[in-house]
Amino acid sequence: MKLWSVGIIGLAGLAAVVAGAYSSPEVLLAVAAVTAAGIGIGWPYFLGIPAKKTLAALIGLPGVGAAVAATYLPAPGFLDWTPSFIAVGVMAIFVMQLLRGTGQAQRLESTLGSCAGVLLSCLGAGWIADSRFNGVREMLLVAAISAAVALLAGLIRWPDRIVAPLGIISAGLAGPLAGLVFSDIAVLPAALAGVVVGAVLVSFRRLVILSGEGLTILAAVGMGLGPVSAVGSLAYFIDKLLIF
Q1: φ, ψ for residue 206 (rounded to 5)?
Q2: pLDDT above 60: residue 89
Q3: Domain map of the chain by residue range?
Q4: Vertex 237 angle, CA 219 and 75, to 5°
């Protein structure tokens, strides 16, 4: 698949998150669960590692569990169980690699890359926490718009030395603009959220470029949804630290 398809998948994931947040908690939970499953299925294909089906379950299921916990845990501990799900997923990855035995191909790459996939899968619970935080969704919308602008900038087929600053600056400007139009969030927190989100997404763009044009559909899905999931927890903690 073409590299721009990863950005399109990311934009679709962001749109689904915003739609779910403004629909109902159950819809947002379904979106988060599908996102975690998509990362679980696609991440091993992006890494090109063996035991893809087993790793898909070990990466995706902790993310689904973290999303369920974030939906039903009482305030303010929306993400209290998320570290536990990350730890269980990482331990399961190590146990699986031990069961594979010594001398297996790409064992180190599989272990480290799969642990990163578990982290990305579980961080998507932050979208749910941010939606429930104080009963308002302004920072969620600001983060989603900033992420969309960064993803759109990443679609430009220019060198990284141009696209990376462009994506970060554009997201940093989109955050305050979205805050002024759609909420009462101050300019500084909105700008900080935009810059952080933009920096995360342009760094993932570099990973996509290094992978080349040979991405499969499943690999594109995993790589497109991974950074979208990570942005959820970033938005929540920025909201909690700077807005509350």
Answers
A1: -65, -40
A2: yes
A3: 4-243
A4: 110
Question: Is there a contact between 243 and 191 (Cβ–Cβ < 8 Å)?
Answer: no
Contact between 196 and 89 (Cβ < 8 Å): no
206: left (phi over 0), alpha (psi -120 to 50) or beta: alpha
This prediction has a pTM of 0.91
Sign of the C-alpha dihedral, residues 116, 122, 125, 130? negative
Indicate the SS3 state at residue 86. helix
What single DSSP character describes residue 133?
Answer: G
3-state secondary structure of 209: helix
- Report how far residue 26's alpha carbon sits from residue 99's, in angstroms, rounded to the nearest whole number: 37
Q: Which of 172, 148, 180 is nearest to 238 (CA)?
A: 172
d(CA 94, CA 40) in angstroms, rounded, equals 16
- Model pLDDT for residues 34-74, shown as the tens digit of each residue: 999 999 999 999 998 888 999 999 999 999 999 999 999 99
The fraction of the chain above a pLDDT of 90, given in percent, is 64
Q: Is the peptide bond before 159 cis (omega within 30 degrees of 0)?
A: no
Closest C-alpha among 86, 107, 111, 87 to residue 229: 86
CA-CA distances (angstroms) from residue 70 to 21, 48, 233? Answer: 13, 31, 11
Indicate the pLDDT class of residue 244, thresholds 50, 70 and 90. Answer: low
* Contact in structure between 197 and 14 (CB atoms under 8 Å): no
Separation between Cα atoms, residue 42 and residue 105, nearest integer Å: 19
